[in-house]
Design brief:
Blueprint (H helix, E strand, L loop, with lengths): L1 H27 L15 H5 L5 E6 L6 H16 L3 E5 L6 H14 L3 E4 L4 H13 L4 E4 L11 E4 L2 H16 L7 E5 L5 H15 L5 E6 L4 H14 L5 E4 L2 H14 L5 E6 L2 H9 L4 E6 L4 H13 L15 E3 L4 E2 L4 H4 L7
Parallel strand pairs: 1-2, 1-3, 3-4, 4-5, 5-11, 6-7, 6-8, 8-9, 9-10
Antiparallel strand pairs: 10-12
Helix pairs in contact: 3-11, 4-5, 6-7, 8-9
Subcellular location: Cell envelope
Protein name: Substrate-binding domain-containing protein
Keywords: Signal
């Protein structure tokens, strides 16, 4: 009987707490004559409602490989879906000085927002800060600025997380072999994103007692991947697992592996290209997995720029403003889940 009374008391306390919290939520979302059923700036209806036209300037690097091409095309496609967005696209460039002039042009034109995937985050920090000081919110994509004052919001892939995902998968596959030989084919070593990927990989491998035994760096191109892998294979007569940071350069990596006639190891890719996923799906080669690095980042930036300018927020969050930092997930794609990710993958 006492247990029943205690149970009832807990239920009353829980119900009261729920009512109190519910009252706070309704109060926090209300203003003026608005009722709890009215659309708010972070409701689905309020988020999607067409508002005043938002002019967005978009600048990114030259689309010299598949992932960057997918970044650009996804941004354009997303803008086309939004009737209240006017997108002005600067020509893709790998010249930081030219990109600085593009942003300066956007500032002079008085655009409402700028979505910027910088060729070099540090080099573009000053002009991005200039835009922010002019009252133009900047959405920083993929490569971070060196100052928090240079962007209203930042959308990033999880580079460290990519390394962790790759290392964790390799631990699952060969971690029971204490003498397993692990190789790494990185991208451009001078880039912070490459350094983050390598750091995450190293940390994950330590969890199962492994380490990187052989490492080379390429340049995110097919030619660079093939040359670096040929060098790696010549230096390492035995390998148990390889992580290649980038599926675009992975085309060259796989070509070098094929030329060398090596198949004693498993390989993990990076970024999540469609051709890598089809290779995984076939089950015929050394490539067994790839780690997603989303090519939706600039498209996400377009959506966030619209929300910021229209004073809206993300409909799946209680928060009434757009977050200032969003880090996307880095899942592992294998033969078991490849069909889920293949439809949205980019072509290398």
């Amino acid at each position: 009987m006492q247990a029943a009374r205690m149970s009832g008391r807990r239920q009353l306390v829980t119900t009261a707490a729920f009512i109190a919290v519910g009252g706070l939520v309704l109060t926090g979302c209300s203003s003026g004559e608005e009722t709890s059923s009215d659309p708010t700036n972070n409701s689905v209806e309020g988020n999607q409602a067409e508002g005043d036209t938002v002019v967005i300037g978009f600048s990114g690097p030259a689309a010299d490989h598949g992932w960057l091409g997918a970044i650009n095309s996804a941004a354009l496609a997303e803008a086309e879906k939004l009737p209240d967005v006017e997108l002005r696209v600067a020509e893709g460039t790998n010249d930081a000085n030219l990109q600085i002039s593009q942003v300066e042009q956007f500032i002079n034109e008085g655009v409402d927002a700028i979505v910027l995937l910088p060729t070099d985050g540090a080099a573009l920090t000053a002009v991005a800060t200039q835009a922010m000081e002019a009252g133009i919110p900047v959405i920083n994509v993929d490569r971070e600025f060196s100052s928090p004052f240079a962007a209203r919001a930042t959308v990033l892939g999880d580079n460290y997380g990519m390394g962790v995902s790759a290392g964790t998968y390799i631990c699952e596959q060969v971690g029971d072999q204490p003498d397993a030989v692990v190789a790494e084919i990185a991208g451009i070593d001078s880039l912070p994103l490459t350094q983050d990927r390598s750091a995450g990989f190293k940390d994950a491998l330590e969890g199962c007692g492994l380490e990187v035994n052989n490492r080379v760096a390429a340049d995110f191109t097919v030619q660079g991947g093939e040359a670096a892998t040929s060098q790696l294979l010549a230096a390492a007569p035995k390998i148990d697992a390889v992580w290649n940071h980038d599926d675009d350069q992975g085309i060259g990596v796989l070509a070098a592996i094929d030329s060398a006639g090596r198949d004693e190891f498993i390989m993990v890719g990076g970024a999540g290209s469609a051709n890598a996923m089809r290779e995984i799906q076939s089950g015929e080669g050394v490539l067994k997995a790839t780690i997603i690095y989303p090519s939706t980042q600039a498209a996400d930036g377009i959506r966030l720029a619209r929300l910021v300018v229209q004073d809206k927020a993300m409909s799946d969050l209680v928060e009434i403003e757009v977050p200032n930092r969003i880090v996307l997930n880095a899942p592992v794609v294998t033969s078991e889940n490849v069909e889920k990710y293949l439809p949205t993958a980019f072509e290398s």
